[in-house]
Amino acid sequence: MKGLKSTKNAQVDKTCLVYIIYGLNFLTILALCAASIVRFTYFGASEAPKDPFYYMLTFYLFPMAGLLVAAEFQYPRIIKYFQFLG
After folding, report:
1. What's the predicted TM-score (pTM) here?
2. What's the helix, strand, coil split of the chain in %, to 5?
3. CA–CA separation, 27 and 24 (whole Å)
4. pLDDT tens-digit profile of 23-79?
5. d(Cα 34, Cα 27) in Å, to the nearest integer?
6. Which residues contact 58 (CB under 8 A, 6 or more apart)?
7. What DSSP character marks residue 45?
8. Is 36 within 8 Å of 62 (Cβ atoms)?
9. In Å, what is the CA distance from 64 to each residue of 15, 30, 42, 43, 86?
10. What Rg, from alpha-carbon coordinates, does the chain have?
11. Is 7 helix (H, G, I), strand (E, B) or coil?
12. Based on the number of CB atoms within 10 Å of its own CB, is 43 exposed (0-12), middle (13-18) or buried (19 or more)?
């Protein structure tokens, strides 16, 4: 009986950890979207960077955030084409 209790507690801890990781992943996705919005505000400014990599990275952030959301919800049609998200 003692081993059963420890297994049950381990499962509870595991699910709690999973929810914490899901929360952190969604916070990261929100931060990614916020960073891309802030970067978009610099496009017309006089102090905007002249580096083309800055603009390419800015346009890259939104689709990447969308792919991460699809991976979190285990959307199979997306994960099938982007295996690195699995």
Report:
1. 0.65
2. 80, 0, 20
3. 5
4. 898 899 899 888 888 888 877 777 777 888 888 888 888 888 888 888 888 888 888
5. 10
6. 36, 39, 40, 43
7. S
8. yes
9. 27, 12, 20, 20, 14
10. 19
11. helix
12. exposed
Half-sphere exposure of 79 (CA within 13 A, CB side): 11
| Beta-carbon contacts of residue 29 (< 8 Å; ≥ 6 apart) | 65, 68, 69, 72
Q: Tokens at residue 76, please?
A: 């199979």
> What separation, in Å, do the N-terminal and C-terminal C-alpha atoms of the chain show?
37
- Between CA 72 and CA 81 the distance in angstroms is 15
Q: Return all residues near 71 (Cβ < 8 A) that are at least 6 apart.
A: 78, 79, 82, 85, 86
